[in-house]
Amino acid sequence: MTKPLDRALAACAREPIHQSGAIQPHGYMISCALPDWTIRHVSANIEEVTGYPPEDMLRQSLREFFTSDLIEPIAETIGFTEAGAPPQRAAIGNIGPMAQLCDIGVHVADGLVHLEIEVQPQNASGERSPTMAAQAMISRLAGHDDADGFNQQVAEQVRLLTGYDRVMIYRFRHDDAGEVVAEARDPGMPSYLGLRYPGSDIPAQARALYLRNRVRVIPDVSYVPVPVIPDRHANGDPLNLGQHALRSVSPVHMEYLRNMGVAASASISIVAGGRLWGLIACHHRTPRRLSPGVRASADLFGLFVSMRIAARDQQRAVAQEDDARQVRDTLSLRLAAAPDPRLALPDNLDLLLRAVASDGVALFQRGQWHTAGRTPGADAKPRLVRWAEHRSAPNIIATANASDWEGDVDGDGLAGVLALPLDPATGDWLFFFRCEEVEEVRWAGPPGEPMQLDASGNRLGPRRSFSAWHEVVRGRSVPWSDADQRTADRLSMLLRERYRRSDLHVQVSDLRARRTRVAVRDQRERLLRLSELLDGLVHVGPDEAARLAARISVLESELQTLIGSEAIEH
User: Which residues in 44-99 belong to E strands, given as ranges?
Assistant: First the structure.
């Protein structure tokens, strides 16, 4: 890339898109301060729905403009809503001199109560309740246990709910690039199935907002933003609109959609393990609104989809950890029974190869190499040790790129390395290897040109072509996942404990304490992942919910007992 383009990309990555200072024109915004409901901010179009211009509403109480039958459910909603939580649908009622029937969403942020108002479409009265619609969609997913079938059914269900021309399941990869893994579309829409998009298409600050605001809708990509009055707090800080469903989006994103031939869009976030797993991305060729009721159904369905994906990922991680634990237990027994664990380690490389998913393992011990499986040639091994020593870290070093360690993919076919330091004093290392994975990628346009500069050379804009662009990627392996690295870290602690069995007792105690901390941390992560699954249990009945509550109470009691016994021992 050119230096001007690099600078423009960096500026794009820093764009404060949560501080746009404007909303989309299909709705209205009022922000109030409690306890007296004093209005601090309004959208410039507020007169259309309330009959009062902004200057007549600012610094007045909301009670002057809303009846109590609207304020009461809003107050009740914010009573059980945490600050920073996504907007909740709080009330439906008549507003203004025309008594327009409106949906009102509410959330709390930065010490203010934020109301987002949308006039109900005339056809909204026939909608099913969001919970009923979501439950019907969930029931249709039964029997789709394989990932591809599940993803395809999700896309079809969302298209049936929303009526969009194209619905895609867009999954984020380890390198932040995205890939379309399922698609349901009108035959007149081009297919993007299997296409990959560079990470710069959805920069980091945009991904963070997708975590905070699970459903995002743009009814018309050619809209004119409506300013918020005033757009700053009293102390001069910009107003944070990151949680607002109506927030005006970046002009670059609007141009991006227009370049795709899209006139309206929506997205539903898929969150698993506390991270943005992907998006259900929806496109339409003409402007299209989604009512708050349909968005609520999409949100509930998205929570269930997230739960299913998180459960599948967790099940896979637990199975991998169980296999790795069995290997570690066997290795620990063998090394404990050996007169000298150091001398016994080379005889157990086949067992080590099962501990971490890899194609080969090599032990560099006191200047000698011991190998099993597929490993680099003799010429590459000294370079490998120098690379590891230069990159030396307290725990492990991982790369999936052969160029990082000057691997010879044409010779031995290896690209990925996971290195574990065993003894800095003797320079002993344990290496795991993965073979090169030659991959043919279909990009949505050239990946080296994710953005373009305008004629002035200053303003960044999205590319205009999304035609498939083929690239053969070489010199890379399947990346080492977080689970791989956690498994390697536990293995490293076991080996270092056994490896230095003759060292001072305090060193062994420190290693054991560290292993215990890691084990407890892992259990904490499992509990956090389980808590995420609870968010998606919108389909269970009262009996199941009661049984679940009883099980959680038992677990809570057991944890309190453990904490009490630990306190007594100390």
Answer: 88-95
